[in-house]
Amino acid sequence: MRTAVKRLGPDLDYLPDGETGDRRNWVISMIDSFRQHPDLRLTREGDWSDYDKTPRFAVRSGHRLYGAAIDLGIAAAARAAMAEFDTIRAAMADGGPRFQVGIPGDVDLAMFTFGPIGPVRYLRPFTEALAATMHHTYKLFGDDALFQIEVPVEQVVLARAPSRLRPLLAGLLARRIAALAQGAPEGARFGVHLCLGDMNHRALGQLSDAAPLVLLANAVAERWPDRRPLQYLHAPLAAADNPPAEVPGFYRPLTGLKLGPDVRFIAGFAHEDQDAATQFRIRDMIETAVGHPVGISTSCGLGRREPAAAAAAMDRIKLLLSDAPAA
Q1: CATH code at 183?
Q2: How confident is the model over 89-114, as a mean pLDDT?
Q3: Residue 31, in any domain of the structure
Q4: Structural domain for 219, as ranges
Q5: Which residue among 10, 31, 143, 179 sits deepest, i.e. has the most Cβ atoms within 10 Å of its Cβ?
Q6: Sign of the torsion angle spanned by Cα atoms 193, 197, 199, 202
């Protein structure tokens, strides 16, 4: 948190705790904790070295999996970061940022835990566990919190689907994302992070252009529940170690974004491995397509990166927020 404030300071609207340490690899620590879960058994070993080398679980014979029996550790981590967050924010002008809490999609947790059958057979326990997490965290932070729903499986599935099926599929996937937000307390604020995956800084999926992002983003905005403000939508325009495309055609579908006037579009294209002049040209392509200035971030989170790489990415974000490319 202190590193982010030092490098991005007043440009930060939302500040996560970084999900460092045991939590640095998104949901991996959550799923690995199921090795000790009394209702689950390991059916396939995996070391998370790649997307096809992940563990798989099944519900034990004679058992059932309930949301109340799943502790994802998110609320406890938020509580642990609370004092440091309060100290940092108190030292900042204009009230400082809100506290950003990452909420993995329920479909994603079910898929990574049980494989393809997970979202069909075991979705409800994860939906319930995530709702409880948001209620607990909201009691701690109230309006100072923002929940960021993070959904790589949904975006990758849509990108891989045949073009003719994408509109229908986008609607179905967006309903699940909106239903997850519906489980939060009224008044809770949200961001949605569409994602292409970043395990070991490698993407799970790729895009030929931004069209699948636009389809899912618009479907989410259209179905978003009342009384749970959607503050932003963060879209991956790069893919982990792959820098963003350099051609305007990739970004042209962004002309079709329909998020509404109150939802900021965060363009996830900042990439420290691409030269700054190219990145500024890409920013111009994106803003030309969207029709107005956009928020800027990387394609995914920074907690799983080495400190030097994360710092370089934050410095690139800061540069891209400026008015002109570096000389």
Answers
A1: 3.20.20
A2: 94
A3: no
A4: 2-25+66-320
A5: 31
A6: negative
Distances 245 to 106, 237, 267, 301, 313 between C-alpha atoms, Å = 30, 8, 13, 19, 17
The domain total for the chain is: 1
Residue 89 lies in a domain: yes
- 320-to-59, 107, 204 alpha-carbon distances in Å: 48, 33, 26
DSSP secondary structure, 208-231, as one string = SSSHHHHHHHHHHHHHPPTTS-EE
Q: What is the pLDDT of residues 266-285, one digit of tens each?
A: 999 999 999 999 999 999 99
Question: Of 114, 33, 109, 38, whose CA–CA distance to 69 is shortest?
Answer: 38
**Phi, psi (5° rounding) for residue 200?**
55, 30
Structure tokens at 39: 């209702």
pTM over 0.90: yes
Q: At what angle do helices 211-223 and 152-160 cross, to 10 degrees?
A: 130
Look at residue 18 and tell me whether its pLDDT is greater than 80: yes
- Residue entry with tokens 């059932």: 64
Residues 6+ apart with CB under 8 A from 327: none
pLDDT (0 to 100) of residue 275? 96
Tell me the C-alpha distance between 199 and 259, whole Å. Answer: 28
Assign 201 a pLDDT band (cuts: 50, 70, 90). confident
Find, among 295, 229, 290, 241, the residue nearest to 267 by Cα.
295
Give yes or no for a contact between 200 and 50, defined as CB atoms under 8 angstroms apart.
yes
**Would residue 226 count as lying in a domain?**
yes
Average pLDDT, the chain: 95
Q: Which tokens in the block code for residue 158?
A: 């849509």
Strand 14-16 versus strand 264-268 pairing type = unpaired
| pLDDT tens digits, one per residue of 249-262 | 999 999 999 999 99
> What is the token pair recorded at 92?
């900042």
User: What are the tokens at 268?
Assistant: 């996830």
Q: How far apart, in Å, are the Cα atoms of 51 and each of 130, 234, 303?
A: 23, 23, 19
High-pLDDT (> 70) share of the chain, % = 98
- Whether 212 contacts 158, CB under 8 Å: yes
